[in-house]
Amino acid sequence: MRKHIEIIGCPIDLGAGRRGVDMGPSAIRIADLEQRLEQLGHQVVDFGDLDVMIPETQQVGQGRLRYKEPILKTCDQLRKEVERSLGEGRMPLVLGGDHSLAIGSVAGSTNFYARQGEALGLIWFDAHGDANTSDTTPSGNIHGMSLAVSLGLGDQDLVNLGGRAPKVQPRNTVLIGVRDLDPGERDILKRSGCTVYTMRDLDERGMRDVVDEAIRLASDGTAAVHLSLDMDVVDPEDAPGTGTPVWGGITYREAHLAMEMFNDRATIAAIDVVEVNPVLDSQNMTGVLASELVQGVLGKRIL
């Protein structure tokens, strides 16, 4: 189906522990993203990049929420743009940047559908849980808290961004590809009520069954699904350019299968593609793969 897609760059790296992810939007664009989507028949507009603050000009802040204030400001800007884009009949495609941006993008999607009396599902691909709070985080990096925030857990300023909390219901929230959890977030995820598929689940059941069930859960009683794709879900052999790589991830082929299944079976509200770090990449392998996976969600097929 032909879509009106709006690319929104969010080159934030305040939520991460390593520099370089702010260049992620450029790396994905360089991989012919816009041109490839147009070849698939979509109408594409590129908003450009949000004006994002850099660590050199900001205070880290006190406590266990590093750069909280500038992250809040950036996420609120992103929320507004995602909401606007959906309101104009477009599908926001957010290029990151670190995963803290999902606090804003999910808030924008949620607000748009909530105004119509409808709910949103969330499918989150990630090697990590992103379910820490200020009480459990070992690092203070907010990119490791963004899923918890979307579920209404953690710092109340982050949780209440956009005026609605929680952003999504646990029963409609699915995390896929997990293989590295901090002790505190492991407990949070067990109590949260959301569905978590670890790499063991993928090994035992296969990507097809897991994604099929994930789409069913996220779509049950919701109008659409927000897809948040952290490139570290892919094994570092195929996606070396991420700030927190974890061996034993999903393969190149599994990633493509999953994305194509979303095109077949899900109503996608918006997409995040995050944690592409060109400084750590090899010949833009991860940026190119990110572009290819987006194309898969939006209709690219072998035949």
Automatic annotation (TrEMBL):
Mn(2+) 2 binds at residues 126, 232. Pathway: Nitrogen metabolism; urea cycle; L-ornithine and urea from L-arginine: step 1/1. Keywords: Arginine metabolism, Hydrolase, Manganese, Metal-binding. GO terms for biological process: arginine metabolic process; urea cycle. Its cofactor is Mn(2+). It is an enzyme of class 3 (hydrolase). GO terms for molecular function: arginase activity; manganese ion binding. It comes from the Bacteria. Its EC number is 3.5.3.1. Transmembrane segments: none annotated. PROSITE patterns: ARGINASE_1, ARGINASE_2. Pfam families: Arginase. Mn(2+) 1 binds at residues 99, 128, 130, 230. It catalyses: L-arginine + H2O = urea + L-ornithine. The keyword Manganese applies. PANTHER family: ARGINASE. Belongs to the arginase family. This is Arginase. It comes from Eiseniibacteriota bacterium.
